[in-house]
Amino acid sequence: xxCNSTDLTSLRIGDDTVERTxxxxxxxxxxxxxxxxxxxxxxxxSAAWAKWREVTGVICDPKMPVKLKGQVYKTIIRPVLTYGSxxxxxxxxxxxxxxxxxxxxxxxxxxxxxxxxxxxxxxLLMMQGYTFHKGxxxxxxxxxxxxxxxxxxxxxxxxxxxxxxxxVLKANxxxxxxxxxxxxxxxxxxxxxx
Length: 194
Description:
Order of helices and strands: EEEEHHHHEEEEEEEE
Number of helices: 4
Number of domains: 2
Helix content: 25-40%
Shape: elongated
Strand content: 35-45%
Largest sheet: 6 strands, antiparallel
Radius of gyration: 24 Å
Distance between the termini: 62 Å
Strand order of the largest sheet: 5-6-7-8-9-10
């Protein structure tokens, strides 16, 4: 294999001719003649899912603490997914593929209807396809008020977390199927419903 080369001469080692190929695997990474990393990323994703299946009994057990599941994921699965990534010329589509894979794994690890994940100081909640963002970090009577969204739908949520912000004790989602009215501020300071 030669990267971006038009030289078609064959390579000989002694009396043997080395077969020309478009890609090959070296130390777990897939090298491509075009210099692209698509095959390498797909191979990393496949390897990460294989490793995920090996530890499925631990990370999908509802009796396991969320923090321990996160540690197992970070120490066993994520390194397999990102192996060799220091040398990748990453594009946005590659970043998106890795993000989708990671989110799918996390959804399977936790209850598919309710996910709590402490990650870099932020708590991310997902419930029934909605993504929740802490709405200003309001702590109200032992709970946290969250904003949630799913596509164009919006809702408000009131979530009560445990002391360590790892376990959801109670969740109340207020969702209105009808769109909330939108308002525009006019030059005189009044608001007009659109």
